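Input.
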Amino acid sequence: MEKIFIDNKDWSGLVLSVISLFFVSIGFLISGSDWSTTFVVMGVLIIVIYLSRPYWFKNYIKFSKHYIYIRFATRKGASIKFSEIRKFDFLLNTLIITTKNDNCYVFNTKGISSYELKNLEIILNDELENKSKENNYQYS
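Output.
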């Protein structure tokens, strides 16, 4: 059975962006030097490698406080805001997410271990529960 790589709320993106910006800035500041191109390339390469992470894994999920990005064994994934999700169901090797505007996202979960799918279900339930609590507090 296959695993799901779950990437959640971490600061690595911000840290790598700052490091990348630092390298690019140094590269432009020393533009007359032989090292300027090296610094600019290193800065850009850091960002390219970081942004390509979803494609390193066959099954990839990234989530934060506001959205979830899901990609299972395809090239293209889907980014869905938690505030837009009405419901989700695991049926016959598929994950079906229905949004409030009646968009339906269907993901093939065949071959993914039940343990990994249970973790995904816990994440979705927790985040949707948190989002519904926030909405109730806003409108009270």
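The first strand starts at residue 5 and ends at 7.
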